[in-house]
Amino acid sequence: MIKKILFSQPRPTMAHNPYTRLEDQYGVQCDFYQFIHIEGLSAKEFRQQRINPLDYTAVILNSKLGADHYFRMCEEMRLNVPESMHYYCVSEQVGFYLQKYIQYRKRKVFFPEGTNKFEDLLPAMHRRPNEKYLMVLSDIHTSDQLDMFAANNIEVQPAIMYRTVTTAWPADKPFDYDLIALFTPAGVKSIQENFPDWKQGETLLAAFGEGTIRAMEEAGFRVDIVAGPGHEFASLPMAIADYLDKNNG
């Protein structure tokens, strides 16, 4: 019987959300804890990569967070980003977010129309064969996107500008959940670092996305519930609701 569920993310700010519906419909308790937090690399740390952002004519951004740290790093290094810089963004949301830092112009900001896939930016990139690309990344990232660019003869320089850090679990808070839902591989790493002797036993683990599933399996954990692209359920609350329908009767 599932009574207590832990979600490895902040508590939603809206009063009505999929998690309150789980609580209301199934009588479970949903707790939230951000297992990881982000720290920006210092300019001194970044210089160890021997990368000068101004050597590049274009920046590839896969998140708003990446945009924040790109402009933060340039400011800390006292670099003036030229007006001619091009920005290739994974989504329209990230593209429009750049208005926080630059004067937005279509001819310098590119994003896929509705697909959120870098593959759909390839035609625009191929039209600019002399472009030099810098891609802003976290220390924890997959090589999938870089491999895709390489396979299409686009040379991209990865630039680590921020890191994912484990958040310590409060010493006075019991870790006694029936189900733990993890959204990223870093969440799996956080459990291992916070509780090195933890045994899964009968605790259920829910994973969002293939990267998280792989991380759980590599850690020796049992994956009980899955959600994400390519799976039956698009979100973990939906997948967990289905599980509770079948098993919490």
Key attributes of the depicted protein:
9 helices, 249 residues, single chain, six-stranded mixed beta sheet, alpha/beta, five-stranded parallel beta sheet
What does it look like?
The protein has 249 residues and is of the alpha/beta class. The chain has two domains: 4-31 and 174-247, Rossmann fold, CATH 3.40.50; 39-164, 3-Layer(aba) Sandwich (Rossmann fold). It is 31% helix and 21% strand. The protein contains nine helices and eleven strands. It has a six-stranded mixed sheet. Strands 2-1-9-10-11 form a five-stranded parallel sheet, with helices on both faces. Helix 1 runs parallel beside helix 9 and helix 7 (185-194) packs parallel to helix 8 (210-218).
The percent range for helix content is: 25-40%
The amount of beta strand, in percent, is: 15-25%
- CATH fold label of the largest domain: Rossmann fold
Order of helices and strands: EHEEHEHEHEHEHEEHEHEH
Structural class: alpha/beta
Q: What CATH architecture of the largest domain do you see? A: 3-Layer(aba) Sandwich
Structure summarized in a few sentences:
The protein has 249 residues and is of the alpha/beta class. It has helices at 18-26, 43-47, 64-76, 92-97, 122-126, 144-151, 185-194, 210-218, 236-247, and strands at 4-7, 29-32, 36-40, 58-61, 86-89, 109-110, 133-138, 156-166, 179-182, 204-208, 225-227.
Note the topology.
Blueprint: E1 4-7, H1 18-26, E2 29-32, E3 36-40, H2 43-47, E4 58-61, H3 64-76, E5 86-89, H4 92-97, E6 109-110, H5 122-126, E7 133-138, H6 144-151, E8 156-166, E9 179-182, H7 185-194, E10 204-208, H8 210-218, E11 225-227, H9 236-247
Parallel strand pairs: 1-2, 1-9, 4-5, 4-7, 5-6, 7-8, 9-10, 10-11
Antiparallel strand pairs: 3-8
